[in-house]
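User: I'm putting together notes for a lab meeting next week and I want to include a structural view of one of the chains we've been expressing. I don't have a solved structure, so I'd like a prediction I can at least talk through. The sequence is below, exactly as it appears in our construct file.
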Amino acid sequence: HAQAAAGVGGVIKMVMAMRHGVLPRTLHVDEPTPHVDWSASDVRLLTEAMEWPETDHPRRAAVSSFGISGTNAHVIVEQAPASVELPPTPEPGAVVPWVLSGRTETALRAQAERLLSLTPDTDLQPADIGFSLATTRSAMDHRAAVVGENRDELLAGLRALAAGSPSPRVVLGEPGTAGKIGFLFSGQGSQRIGMGRELYAAYPVFADAYDEVCALLDAPVDVDSEELNQTGSTQPALFAVEVALFRLLESWGVRPDYVAG
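Assistant: Thanks for the context. Below is the predicted structure for the 261-residue chain, given as structure tokens.
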């Protein structure tokens, strides 16, 4: 028995079934039981795999997991929407962070050593490695961010982290326990020509929030115009950019305890 992982097997099975468009047969059953009136409804037992056709709605499947103590966990899995475009990749020269963590400082350095031993043998792009490190690993108490514009700089930072040596490419820290987060919506004077342009191009969350705010404002917003420094343009442009920044940070799990401005 797969113990605590028993239910996830069914989830994986149905995700793969959706991906391949195949309804898998029910295991260990040669024919439907005669104690059920199968003709009374559209429900039937699959004794053989069959095609799962595309329709005007996404494929859905229900997965149940039953525990011996009476636990009943039930989840409905829905087919993911088709991806219309690939996520943006950083332009050459963009700084990429690799984040690592460990329960102790020694474990953190060991993580750096492990990644250092694997990275030279892979053809993955630095941004892809950074994405996986940030989204698929648990965050422990001892943390580090290795930053660099290319693979060589990132590997140099990893070597320094693994050796416990100081490096301008390594940022160390531990999560705060008592501190609180405040977001400040700054006012006129903090604007600059082109503000938010790179974030708009790189992060759909930022772009969507920015466009939504601009659509609701009566005043035109053009961060590339010299009129940005005029009050009538400055205030709405700052508000649009700052709301978009808020939504971007929120999408990364950063939420404020206080908001001012």
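A couple of points you could mention at the meeting. The chain is about 35% helix and 15% strand. Residues 182-260 form one domain.

User: Perfect, that's what I needed.
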